[in-house]
Amino acid sequence: MNGGLREVMHKEKKVLNRGFVELVEWMGGDEAVIRNARRCWRSASKGTESDRKLLKHLLLKGHKTPFEAMVFTFDIKCPLFVARQWFRHRMGSFNEESLRYCVAEREYFVPEGLPAKLRDEWREHQEETFTLYEQMISRHSLRREAARAILPIGIYTRFYWTVNGSSLMNFLLLRTSRQAQREIRAYARAILEIVSTVAPWSFSIFQEFVLKGGESGSHEEA
Amino acid sequence: MNGGLREVMHKEKKVLNRGFVELVEWMGGDEAVIRNARRCWRSASKGTESDRKLLKHLLLKGHKTPFEAMVFTFDIKCPLFVARQWFRHRMGSFNEESLRYCVAEREYFVPEGLPAKLRDEWREHQEETFTLYEQMISRHSLRREAARAILPIGIYTRFYWTVNGSSLMNFLLLRTSRQAQREIRAYARAILEIVSTVAPWSFSIFQEFVLKGGESGSHEEA
Amino acid sequence: MNGGLREVMHKEKKVLNRGFVELVEWMGGDEAVIRNARRCWRSASKGTESDRKLLKHLLLKGHKTPFEAMVFTFDIKCPLFVARQWFRHRMGSFNEESLRYCVAEREYFVPEGLPAKLRDEWREHQEETFTLYEQMISRHSLRREAARAILPIGIYTRFYWTVNGSSLMNFLLLRTSRQAQREIRAYARAILEIVSTVAPWSFSIFQEFVLKGGESGSHEEA
Amino acid sequence: MNGGLREVMHKEKKVLNRGFVELVEWMGGDEAVIRNARRCWRSASKGTESDRKLLKHLLLKGHKTPFEAMVFTFDIKCPLFVARQWFRHRMGSFNEESLRYCVAEREYFVPEGLPAKLRDEWREHQEETFTLYEQMISRHSLRREAARAILPIGIYTRFYWTVNGSSLMNFLLLRTSRQAQREIRAYARAILEIVSTVAPWSFSIFQEFVLKGGESGSHEEA
User: Fold this and answer.
1) Are the C-beta atoms of residues D97 and A40 closer than 8 Å to each other?
2) D172 to chain C, closest Cα gap in Å
3) Are C45 and C34 in contact (CB under 8 A)?
4) D177 touching B, CB under 8 A?
């Protein structure tokens, strides 16, 4: 499985016009979930088939604790309005770049499918915004943390996200849903593809029996 | 104490150029903290003096659980960059207005102390931004949730925040600190003033022995 | 509704041979949930019928955050093996009597339905256990915290539990299930009855559409 | 560092008369903490010395999030009264053997330092307790989950514990304290020794500047 790890660690999925998702570290996996679940009954594995059945049982009955034995750290770059939806998921750990200390780079979201003229207008206005932001800081000595107030919500940010398997599934359930915003759905799908290579049993059963069945929405966001 | 409640509930503190904080509901208070702490030893109160000593002991030793017996719900209006720092505090509950469904109002942060000319330039650019945003939605039928990407991080947002006394103290410790950003400090101070009338013993001891002593920073934010 | 509160506060439900559940404090209720949910769309209530529909929608879609606006504090007395299952629910606050500092009282669980002879044998052995425990402390100066190691898991303990509506529903879903242990089910049912008088809409919809539909188990316990 | 991992993974520390602690899996480490902390300022490492300074700064200022990038899973065997104190730490994941499904083994805590005569009396009574427990199940068909009510709080239990570095430090701060019960202190010290070989910088700085300085107690337990 360590071979698999190394392979995965070089994988990075591009998302939207400027973003990406990369798995930088993980522990546990299907085996850890099975090991932890079996602790409850002091039972030993009876082979592949019964292990898969156990995982399915856990997922269908909502027994989430064993999935907390697998943990992932991702490196993520996404627009700030996507990050805001992301950070609503309280069961996980975020370390984000701060515009209190760093100067923003000229990277911002442009909606797909805009007619060329509108897209130019969008870009032009954003470029002006960044110019104004930079002047406020360099010429007029405004604090960076205050100057950023003029920057767009579509600006790209970067953060590390550490999350366990159970919370990740909750995120995927809400954020791959058709009711979730198109942009965060692109990130959720990229993450689902990556973790499916790391814990293939758990996430294939999750996809087949939890994602397909449910239609959970995600209006709990801004 | 219900009289005190009613009085408090009409209190609303204005913060920054367009924001406010209002306490809309609360439960517990000093008595609940004392009651819960005494449960540990099955002990009864021995009067005012010993109750205050107990609260001081709990705060100095970091025994936080009894303070979770008091809970507050605030209605808050603040710039989005302040909300982002706020939402990093995971131990609490947020219900926020969503720009996926609502159209943004023309309310945005303007840094204090900007020279008149710069302030005008700031405002002018922001007004153009809102005009572009509105056109994208009304004329060009761009999804609201995507159009907002052009809006400034300084836009005002509104949310309810439910938080227990222990998590609130952690918020106040980090966000009244000199290392916190000036804008969120204004909100933290307003909240501290309000809760000091609701649970006066806990928060006066907290101010005197925890806030004054510490210098905790708050770089854990974006 | 304050009238309702006062009435509820005098209510205490007896559970098992020596236990009880009592609601000592609460805030929020149906109105708070509705208010918080409507914040998302900046919408006002359109009357009773649409409010009930909203609550049902939230519960069926798993939108849990608005239910965190209602919070309850219970006073509970239950056998320690029940308390252990209870404390597995991490989203809530516990303040418990400690046998490090207090001397245990002679109150212990006796299984219902034991034949008289066995019940006597059970009691007799337990009484001997308590006598040995007391001698270890008083005659042999063993630390209370170590002497308790001989006490039975069926000993009664007392604690305050502060929990929000969303976490409470999760507790009720798992602990009223037929897969939960009979003893904790008795407590869960008592609590459901009490909160149904405090937030009648939320908990009647919860009972009808969530509890009746699901069959979630609860093996996540010891 | 993988060499270190393999070495650590074979390490198992015996604690009390029958218990142990074993690290079965981990991710992150000093490097992950440093990487996550530097994300905030978009800064690169400037070498060993500045990395150690950064870790010290984070620990002294209470910036805990970066330490959530390291995660540990332990296999633990301890008396139930110790497990109860352990499970009060809500920020972590527990999977425990359940006496609803398993039959208890005759393994129980015996206080150290008891005179021989008392120790014999203690053991004799406990053996009788187990005999009664076994009869209730095998002869009288009492449910295992109810029969366990007669078992002693000093019975040994086993569980997996997954916890991140920040929550682990909070556990260690409270549970290595002189105010913590002697028995859980033995476990806390064993864990501190183990993790000090896995993330040596973080935990040596933690020991020197946080543990030595503080005197945090731990009455938040039963």
Assistant:
1) yes
2) 19
3) yes
4) no
Known catalytic membership, residue A175 = yes
Task: Write down the ipTM of this complex.
Answer: 0.91
Among B95, B153, B179, the strongest candidate for a mutation testing the A interface, having the largest count of A CBs within 10 A, is B153
C-alpha D40/C-alpha A95 separation (Å) is 7
Strand C156-164's sheet: what is its strand order? C12-15, C19-27, C71-79, C156-164, C93-96
| CA–CA gap between residue C143 and residue C139 (Å, rounded) | 11
Query: Residue C37 has what pLDDT?
Result: 97
Helix, coil or strand: residue D135: helix
Query: In angstroms, what is the C-alpha Rg of chain B?
Result: 21
The neighbouring-strand residues paired with B20 are: B14, B77
Among C137, C85, C69, which residue's Cα sits nearest to residue D99? C85
Would an 8 Å CB–CB cutoff place D18 in contact with chain C?
Answer: no
Q: Extract the tokens encoding A78.
A: 């996404």
Which tokens sit at A115?
Answer: 């007619």
Say if residues B98 and B143 touch (Cβ distance below 8 Å): no
Q: Give buried/exposed letters for C101-115 (b at 16+ CB in 10 A, else e).
A: ebebeebbbbbeebe
H-helix or E-strand spanning residue B162: strand B156-164
Beta-strand pair A156-164/A93-96 = antiparallel
Tokens at residue A57, please?
A: 């049982």
Beta bridge partners of B78: B157
The reported pTM is 0.94
**Which residues, at least 6 apart from D181, have a Cβ–Cβ distance to it below 8 Å?**
C100, C145, D82, D85, D221
Q: How many CA atoms lie within 13 A of B149 on its CB side?
A: 27
CA atoms lying within 13 Å on the CB side of residue A50 = 8
Confidence of residue D11 (pLDDT cuts 50, 70, 90): confident
Looking at A191-200, B153-162, C210-219, D74-83, which range is the least confident one? C210-219
Q: How far apart are CA C41 and CA B87, in angstroms?
A: 19
The enclosing H or E element of C94 equals strand C93-96
What span, in angstroms and rounded, lies between the C-alpha atoms of D122 and C132?
Answer: 8
Residue B220 near chain D (CB below 8 Å): yes
* C-alpha closest to that of A13 among A101, A78, A109, A85: A78
Question: How far is Cα B39 from Cα B29, in angstroms, rounded to an integer?
Answer: 16
At B166, phi and psi to the nearest 5?
-70, -45
Catalytic residue list of B? 175
Distances (CA, A) of D199 to A164, D37, D72, D183, D196: 20, 15, 11, 25, 6
CB pairs under 8 A between A and D: 93
pLDDT digits (tens, 9 = 90+) for C101-160: 999 999 999 999 999 999 999 999 999 999 999 999 999 999 999 999 999 999 999 999
Structural contact between residues C80 and C177, judged by C-beta atoms closer than 8 angstroms: no
Whether B91 and chain D come into contact, CB under 8 Å, resolves to no
